[in-house]
Design goal:
two-stranded antiparallel ribbon; 13 helices
């Protein structure tokens, strides 16, 4: 099978498997009496990042750090420049000041932390534990913030809300479990989780194999493939959910989805990858692309702060910058 077909099949399996995994996990958690808020912040939030997680871990285990780190860094760049740019073109985004200073600044700080690791250290288990603890602290804060019902939603919450835009009322039941009904539907939900995990693992393997083969055949580095094809492909769930939210004129949810995804990518996927499969950071990514990732996160803060909105003109600018970035890193 050719490498483009391997990549395409891998992405399809990743997206489908991630969908089944999230659905099954949510249903089981509901049967266990877990609150909808906690389900949204953890299972839905992290579950929608499963394609990036599995791809980066498998690439690291396969000795392809360019794909592993390129996927994380490239996804964050694409989330802001590509996904947020397209969303703003569809419908201008109003920016809540509290969300910007909390979630936007945290995303920029996490990008700076990964950059510091890339320049001065390596992605080892100590870094992995630190990143995962940082994500856990953020989720605890988000849970307390949402439980206070102040109306000031965190990006972690809106990341889950963005998925509900695609599956209105269909992802979680959010209703009480009927008496004696714990096991009703549980076997099917367990099956969803098992099949979803199998598809995600298989899809990740095909994607990594196809990406490495494509890099060799084109004579480009694995880092470039990871930063572009792999990163855009694994970001497809975020792209779909953000665009659907923007089309329904819930563009603020699209912003929260992007900010939340970036935080999960850096602290969650970066941390889990370092913990499971420690890897060196490719110097070309640390020396350029991580600086771009941090610069894009800071640019978002500046654009959003100007008038507390991201309009169509800013959306066009973000898309133009993404085109320029792709042109710059792809070998001529």
């Amino acid at each position: 099978m050719s490498s483009p077909l391997l990549i395409l099949l891998g992405l399809v399996l990743l997206v489908l498997g991630g969908e089944l995994f999230v659905r099954g996990s949510v249903r089981i958690a509901e049967r266990l009496g877990v609150s909808p808020l906690m389900i949204g912040l953890t299972l839905v939030g992290f579950g929608t990042s499963t394609p990036e997680l599995v791809t980066s871990v498998q690439a690291s285990l396969a000795g392809s750090p360019g794909i592993a780190l390129g996927n994380i860094v490239g996804s964050n760049i694409a989330n802001i420049l590509l996904i947020l740019g397209l969303s703003a073109l569809i419908f201008p985004i109003a920016v809540p000041s509290a969300a910007l200073w909390r979630d936007g600044v945290l995303g920029a700080a996490a990008a700076a932390a990964l950059l510091a690791v890339g320049l001065a250290w390596t992605l080892d288990r100590m870094v992995g534990v630190a990143f995962l603890l940082g994500l856990a602290a953020y989720l605890v804060y988000a849970w307390r913030q949402e439980s206070a019902t102040t109306g000031d939603h965190t990006a972690a919450f809106e990341k889950a809300q963005a998925l509900e835009e695609v599956h209105p009322g269909g992802l979680a039941q959010h209703g009480p479990v009927p008496p004696g009904g714990f096991w009703r539907g549980v076997p099917a939900s367990i099956g969803f989780v098992a099949v979803g995990l199998a598809l995600v693992v298989g899809g990740g393997g095909l994607l990594v194999e196809g990406a490495t083969t494509l890099a060799r055949s084109l004579g480009v580095s694995e880092s470039v493939i990871g930063l572009t094809i792999v990163a855009i492909g694994t970001s497809m769930p975020e792209l779909v959910t953000s665009l659907v939210a923007a089309l329904r004129r819930h563009a603020d949810v699209a912003l929260g989805n992007v900010l939340g995804s970036n935080i999960y990518n850096l602290l969650g996927i970066g941390g889990a990858t370092a913990l499971i499969a420690p890897t060196a950071v490719p110097p070309e990514i640390a020396g350029f692309d991580m600086f771009v990732m941090l610069g894009v996160a800071l640019l978002l803060l500046v654009l959003a702060r100007s008038g507390w909105r991201i309009g169509r003109r800013e959306g066009a600018l973000l898309l133009a910058l993404y085109g320029l970035y792709l042109f710059w890193i792809w070998p001529g």
